[in-house]
Amino acid sequence: FLHLQHCFPAQTLFAWSLLVWTFAAVIVPVVITLWCSIQRSKRKTHMKQFFRQSRHGWHYTDLFSKPTYCCVCSQHILQGAFCDGCGVCADEQCLRRADRELSCKEIMAPSRADGVVFHRWVRGNVPLASYCVVCKQQCGTQPKLCDLRCVWCQTTVHDECMDSLLDATQCNLGEFHNLIIPPHYLYQVNKLRRRHADEYKKLAMDCGDGWTPILVLANTRSGNNMGEALLGEFRSLLNPVQVFDLSQLAPAKALQLCTLLPPGCVRVLVCGGDGTVGWVLDAIDSMKLKGQDQFIPRVTILPLGTGNDLSNTLGWGAGYAGEIPVEQVLRNILDAGVVKMDRWKVQVSSKGLSIRKPKVLSMNNYFSVGPDALMALNFHTHREKTPSFFSSRIINKAVYFLYGTKDCLVQECKDLDKRIELELDGERVALPSLEGIIVCNIGYWGGGCRLWEGMGDEPCPPTRLDDGLLEVMGVFGSFHCAQIQVKLANPVRLGQAHTVRLVLKSSTMPMQVDGEPWAQGPCTITITHKTQALMLYHSSEQTDDDDDESEVEL
Ligand SMILES: [Zn+2]
Ligand SMILES: [Zn+2]
Ligand SMILES: [Zn+2]
Ligand SMILES: [Zn+2]
């Protein structure tokens, strides 16, 4: 007992020291981490506020992807901010000075009396693999803030070659001058007392023949954050005023810039999926309603995400993942031809509910009822339930495949031909034993398969994007659908028509328009021609004639 009493204080001491050390080892790092993250978020919100009022389009990065030097203090920096318009970089300490002292690319500015446009040189951080316009050697190779780039024409030149640059002041806006809205044009339009198309045409004479300014509308929500990077690249190559982020501004607002440009020459590049293209085309249709017919632009696509059938039909591919540089994208647009594309109105009138207004949808790609719509609908509802699970593309594919095969077993669309009536241009069509009907406007369906032509083993009536005709096909079931997708089978051709009417007599069926699925009870569906859109198409083979406006068969 005595022994115990003797050692008790030592034990308490030990326990206390253990407690203190545990506290130090666990709590202190936690507190430090918390404090750091609070400071960090404080700094971030502070920075955001500053970015909002600044003259540049600043973006903050924790790590620059290439060797970068601060444009103010010339130090090598790992983190800091860069302006995607003019390419100025600065570390946090120099950011305010950079914003105050270095001017950005001017989106609107008066031209000189003699009409000469000056280069706008920015020193340092020239793009990798850029070459000096004077000595043709590579620029930006020295480990310091060196060499210059013009933010308009993208010409690069060594510091030491600058003196021997012959036209050191004259800038012709470079390779993409036909796509850029020059600052002086906007300045003059802004000064106009009477804003009229004829005045714009007069002003456009300063911009050269063949001037076809482009507006870039990017959806940053589609396709793996590609949109964000594209916005930056287009801002640096073009006038930042002609580049729009659709998450900040609706297409209808962005398209109003068309009404300040000469009619008939404007192009709109939509960066996004087929859904985004439909959104922009709807906004263009509403321009027609506002009486702005003459200002309607031609639409071209840079597809983001995967399986974009409309984009694929027009020759722009099913999905862009950076395979070709943005400069090449612009070159392809300069070479593109114009084609008219039919757009359709899908009217769904539910049976018995005459009080309710019929549902009206716009269609560019296809309408379908049956297995492929069911697949899309199952996928859609499960994605709504557990969105986080569907963030990966591979999981998406697996799930899509599982739902497709599951339907093989349950046969939810069985005996469609007994429950549905099909009329093409007012004439009833006798249906074989079917599970699904697909109505196509464009050549591709289901993420890259040519449905109407099939495998080309039998001749078929030709299709065009502008013939005002829809192609109507039938499928025997989801297994048949899958076979068609891997090009092992053809759908049943039911015919071509200007107007398609479907009457669903009983039960609920899955339906979709342009990939947007829903479940539909007994109803009448009428698909009629709505309007035509002016689209640009890309033909991969180089043609000799540069007759841009010729319309070809697609
Ligand atoms: Zn600095
Ligand atoms: Zn800038
Ligand atoms: Zn220049
Ligand atoms: Zn040089």
Question: What does this molecule look like?
Answer:
It comes from Hippocampus comes (Tiger tail seahorse). Its EC number is 2.7.1.107. With 554 residues, this protein is α+β, with helices and mostly antiparallel strands. Among the domains are: 183-334, 3-Layer(aba) Sandwich (Rossmann fold), CATH 3.40.50; 345-536, Tumour Suppressor Smad4 (Sandwich), CATH 2.60.200. 30% of the residues lie in helices and 22% in strands. The chain is built from 13 helices and 26 strands. The strands form seven sheets. It has a six-stranded antiparallel beta sheet. Strand 11 (267-272), helix 7 and strand 12 form a beta-alpha-beta unit. Helix 10 packs across helix 11 (393-410). The chain is globular and about 80 Å long.
- Helix content range of the residues, please? 25-40%
Strand arrangement in the largest pleated sheet: 14-13-26-23-16-17
Q: What is the makeup of the main sheet?
A: 6 strands, antiparallel
Small-molecule components bound: zinc ion
Work out the helix count.
13
What gyration radius follows from the Cα positions, in whole Å?
30 Å
Low-pLDDT sequence parts: 542-554
Percent of sequence in beta strands: 15-25%
N/C terminus separation: 101 Å
CATH level 3 topology of the domain at 345-536: Tumour Suppressor Smad4
Provide mean pLDDT, rounded: 86
Gross morphology: globular
Assembly level: single chain
